[in-house]
Amino acid sequence: MISMPRVNRILQHRSYEEFSDKNKQAEAERVYCRHGSDHGLAVARIAYIYLLEKYIEDRGSLSEAGTNNANIRLEESYGVGKESIYAAGILHDIGRWVEYESQEDHALAGARLARPILRDCGFTDAEIERIVIGISEHRLHPDKTSSILGQALALADDWARDCKSCPSKAACYKYTKAMEDILI
Ligand SMILES: [Fe+2]
Ligand SMILES: [Fe+2]
Question: Does the keyword Manganese apply (predicted)?
Answer without folding.
Answer: no
